[in-house]
Amino acid sequence: MKKIIIILIIAIAIGAGTFVVIKNMNEVTEPAFYRMDEPSIIVKTNDDIKEYMGREHIRMDNDHIYVSREILENDLGININYNLDHDIAVMTTLDDVIRFYGEQGKIKLNQDITEDISEMLVTEDTVMFPIDALKDYINIEYREVDNVDRVVMWDIFSNKKMAKVNGKTKIKEGRSFWTDNLGIISDENNVEIISEEGPWAKVITEGGIIGYVKEDKLKDINEIGGVKRQEKTPIWKPESGKIILTWEQVHSRNPNTDKINHMEGVNVISPTWLSLKDASGDISKKISKDYMKWAKGRDYKVWVLFSNSFNPDLTDKFLNNPIAREKAINDLVSTLTNIGADGINIDFENVYLKNKEILVQFVRELTPIMHKNGLVVSMDVTIKGGSDNWSKFYDRKAIGEVVDYVALMTYDEHWAASPISGSVASIGWVENGVKGLLEDVPEEKLLLGVPLYTRLWTETPSTEEPNKMVVKSRAFGMERVKEIMEKENIVKLWDDEAGQYYVVYIEDGAVHKIWVEDGKSIELKSELINKYNLAGIATWSRGFETTDIWHVIDRIIN
């Protein structure tokens, strides 16, 4: 009985094998062309190949090829922001901003209406964009498969490996002779090699089929390199030396320039003239023509500071309104070009963490427009760590990829309301901040922001809690601190860990402490610029310094 069962099993196996062989020999003899009724798209990058089927992914309508936002964003890394409430999509590259206004049916390329780009399609499933009209702007290429709604798309940075078929051969569904035949590739036909897996090569045929052929069936293999991706470098650098920037803090009135001393080595000034006024994109302005005339007369570059007024609710409403963002950008460009400014310094602080991505979107929309008008773009960021609203909302890497310069604000280690006394910017804390930002921003874009002020800390025993000191502080410039240090009973010590002099004295029943910013401490911070080959320094803010500081900085970094 066992022998009979064994014989039957062998017979069945032989029969099955014979069937598979016959199936593979006789099933498909037609050329390898895609034959599905649904439209489809193959998306190829250096790292991956994906295939999508259905009109929710690709459509061929009105002589245009529309591809979904999700494919463009997720597979090709194209930056697209779509606002459903306003039916506006904004597509950004390092060089251009393309705005699609849904119901209005208009398209803007940078600041001008264009008819060279078709409207977007808004469907129940997604938003779709015409890649045939956009390919030169978003760095993609594509080819249509003959006689069928199928497209092969790739970014121009991807490498390609092409080959010819050496004799008529079958293309298989998998890496085995036993898998299904997908068709026949004729002798001398071109294929693109996607990957090489043992004796098999995964290929795309001219007919849009993805499958496998034996490597020994390929010849004339030719590797074609993709376009080299260009990193965006600053549009302006000093002709010699490093950038020495100082911020000009303007409150209700601009400074009397007759009283501003010579600032040795300074080549950029940034007056705090512009701030966000309301959520519609209106801007408050404190511009002084006299100050501009004074600055230009001394060959200073002027990068006007634009802040979000440090108001998180206002910033949230503004950033999430594409009309407001565009309005503000147009006003900023017009204002800066009209007064003869050289650039902008973006100072957005106290921003909700939920606005992290949309803040980057705003910077992506602003920067190409600024560049087309010859304006340098810099942005201020804090040291990594800290709270959501004051640190974590910055996408430092994304910002660094877009702007010309990133100014790292290495101050307020111990802030005005700190519960304990301490340095505003100890040297170790500053250096760690630099090393942290260099993980995300290239050295040639990084400006080291340092304080020209310090804090006088006052500590008194608490009358409410035992063993607790009540700590208060006031910010002082260097000249005021020098006056304080002339008091009697002052103790002055060098704090090697802080890289600063430490001063302590008792007055009016309270302990007073200062970690002093002076020429020696600024010299140590300036040396970090050479150590890490940074783009330069930025100082907050002019008027807090003693006259020797500019010589100290210029001597060290230039």
Just name the CATH architecture of the domain at 244-452 and 518-557. Alpha-Beta Barrel
The first-level CATH class of the domain at 244-452 and 518-557 is given as Alpha Beta
Helix content: 25-40%
CATH 4th-level superfamily of the domain at 244-452 and 518-557: Glycosidases
Mean pLDDT across the residues is 92
**Biggest sheet statistics:** 8 strands, parallel, barrel
Q: How large is the count of helical segments?
A: 13
How large, in whole angstroms, is the Cα Rg? Answer: 32 Å
| Envelope shape | elongated
**What fold name goes in the CATH topology slot of the domain at 244-452 and 518-557?**
TIM Barrel
Query: Which segments are poorly predicted (pLDDT under 50) over 5 or more consecutive residues?
Result: 5-28
Structural class: alpha/beta
For the termini, the CA-CA separation is 98 Å
- Proportion in β-strands: 25-35%
Order the strands across the largest sheet as they lie in space.
Answer: 21-22-25-26-27-28-29-35
Brief characterization of the structure:
The protein is an alpha/beta fold. It contains 13 helices and 35 strands. Among the domains are: about 40-155, Copper Amine Oxidase, Chain A, domain 1 (2-Layer Sandwich), CATH 3.30.457; about 245-450 and about 520-555, Alpha-Beta Barrel (TIM Barrel).
